[in-house]
Amino acid sequence: MSLRVEDLVIEIDGRRVVDGVSFEAPDGARLGLIGESGSGKSLTALAVLGLLPDGARASGSIRWNGVELIGMPDRELAKLRGDDIGIVFQEPRTALNPIRTVGRQIAESIRIHERVGRREARERAIAEAARVRLPDPELIVDRYPHQLSGGQRQRVAIAMALACRPRLLIADEPTTALDVTVQAGILTLLLDLVRDEGMSLMFITHDLAVLAQVAAEGVVLEHGRVVERAPVGTLLTAPASPVTQGLLRDATATLWRPEGGPA
Amino acid sequence: MRPLWLRRLWAVSTGRFGLIVVAIIALLALVSLAWTPFDPQASEIRDRWMPPSWPHLLGTDDTGRDILSLIMAGARTTVFVSVGAGVVATLVGIALAALGALTARWLRETVAVLVDILIAFPVLLIAMMISSVWGGSLWVVIWSVGIGFGVNIARVTRPELRRVQQSDFVLAARAAGLTAGQSLVRHLLPNVAPVFIVQLSWSMAVAVLAEAGLSYLGFGASVVEPSWGLLLADLQRYIGVHPLSVIWPGLAITVTVLALNLLGDGLREATDPTLRHRAAEVHTPGVVA
User: Fold this and answer.
1) CB of A96 within 8 Å of any CB in chain B?
2) Residue B55, preceding bond cis, omega within 30 degrees?
3) Could you tell me the pLDDT band of residue B36, with boundaries at 50, 70 and 90?
4) What is the mean pLDDT of the segment spanning A40-64?
5) Which helix or strand (DSSP H or E) is residue A249 part of?
6) What is the pLDDT of residue A252?
7) Cβ–Cβ under 8 Å, residues B217 and B128
8) What confidence tens digit (pLDDT) does each residue in B186-205 have?
9) Distance from CA of B168 to the nearest CA of A (A)
10) Which residues of B touch A (CB under 8 A)?
11) Long-range pairs for A133-139 at CB < 8 Å and ≥24 separation?
């Protein structure tokens, strides 16, 4: 179960926004993709899932367990999405459909990939809600997204991404839009789930302080190119490139506590 | 248990009024297929110009036809035309909106321009032109209003569909494994429903007006078909002598159009996610925020 990206190029209207990115996430890896906004890290994640926006074209190679994903028909890719590879996005306010209950959204990928009935899907949704430590899972699955807090919504988004036990979780700045105290809880949850399931994690952020907590290895991007690739400890103590040095200066001074308590 | 949207529609007095009136009109039309108090086309010269009384509850016209029976039979035509136009407008509107929002860019932009051009055509004038060349019929009304307002629906629904399609939750649903088609049915269409419903109810109300208007002018229903517009044209010649009788078809048209609009507004409010907040919070105490 490994992801191998080689010489990935993404063009939007002829402009190269990702230019020859290569990296590898073997089974159980905890890889961080870090860079300023506009460095191409989110597009790289979307390219892995084959969900690039209109007008964007990917070339190069993205292999999942040796199978080439670039050029794969959408119907085939849809079978991998959610089932093999899950993703959590940055903004929990907009990542949930406002007119569907939380439970139905958590169960959506289960119903798609495993073809279970409505009743069983609801039971599974409750179990998934409990797994991401949402309060009162039996009640919360019948709520609508606007009735939840930002942190709770992000937990729902994580439950959606993990409902079918994917082997790789892509987390695209999952804590950026949240309060600092809530961030810590979400990070703890993500790490626990990744550890429990033995999943690989690809964590995207612009914050070295956050990256230091979740990833073992970091790939630093600038203007769509890889500028540095090193263990996170090295990035923090001996950053080689000016980009990494800049990111280190900007890193949040927030102390992050593994137990999720307030700093 | 009744579904939430129906309870919420019922909770608003205008929505309730719209629903009841539309249901009554539909019921009258249905009943008229099997039974009317009198044969709507049978004239009885001895009974001409009866005031509202038993057994002619709304009176009779210049040839002694029972006005209530004519209104009931006319409701049939009204329902037929407005439902027909509604179906055509829905198909045209959704198809154009989907083509204009969800396809490759060149096709999207072509459709957008096409819709902008089509929207400039005066629907009723074209219906009258077609009628005067090939003869009037209810089908001309249905097709012209249906296509004309389908374009209107597409014009309003297209940007809404595009906005929802680019939203994060559609991306998240696709990332969970839904195909493009599944996300259209489960996420896109339900989210544009409020906008669409208002347009549709407005199209159906205009179809009622258009049928009555075109029939009044002699471009719609043929003389043997029962129609509120025809009845209005018949009775209006005697407005100086028997002003009461002309009120009934006029009232039927006005109330139906009003009810369709109120029903559409009520349905929008009952299905709109942003308006759902308030009601949902009333019904679920102890929400953890």
Assistant:
1) yes
2) yes
3) confident
4) 93
5) helix A242-250
6) 63
7) yes
8) 999 999 988 899 999 999 99
9) 5
10) 105, 166-169, 171-180, 182, 186-187, 190-191, 271, 273-274, 276-277, 280-281, 284, 287-289
11) A133/A189, A134/A159, A135/B288, A136/B288
Neighbour tally for B144: CB within 10 Å? 25
Pairwise CA distance, residues B182 & A42, whole Å: 24
Identity (one letter) of the amino acid at A155? R
The residues, any chain, with a CB within 8 Å of residue B26's CB and separated by 6 or more, are: B75, B79
Across the range B219-240, mean pLDDT stands at 87
- Cross-chain Cβ contact A147/B180 below 8 Å: no
Label residue B274 by pLDDT band (50, 70, 90): low
- E-strand spans in A147-224? 168-172, 200-205, 217-222
| Alpha-carbon distances, residue B42 vs A109, B29, B45, B60, B83 (angstroms) | 64, 19, 10, 11, 28
Interatomic CA distance for residues A4 and B111, integer angstroms? 40
Q: Domains in chain B and their CATH numbers?
A: 4-38+62-277 (1.10.3720.10)
For A106, phi then psi, to 5°, come to -65, -40
Closest CA to A1 of A165, A114, A158: A165
pLDDT category at A262 given cuts 50, 70, 90 is very low
Paired with A201 in beta bridges are A30, A169
CA atoms within 13 A on the CB side of A229: 9
Q: What is the CATH T-level fold of the domain A1-84+167-263, as seen in this structure?
A: Rossmann fold (3.40.50)
In what order do the strands lie in the sheet containing A15-25?
A15-25, A3-12, A56-64, A67-68
Q: How long, in residues, is chain B? A: 289
> Mind listing the pLDDT tens digit for each residue in B66-97?
999 999 999 999 999 999 999 999 999 999 99
Sheet holding A85-88, edge to edge: A85-88, A168-172, A200-205, A30-35, A217-222, A225-231
Residue type, B96: L
**Distance in Å, alpha carbon of A75 to nearest chain B alpha carbon:** 7
Q: What is the pLDDT of residue B49?
A: 85
Question: H or E stretch including A130?
Answer: helix A118-131
Please state the domain extents for chain A. 1-84+167-263, 97-165
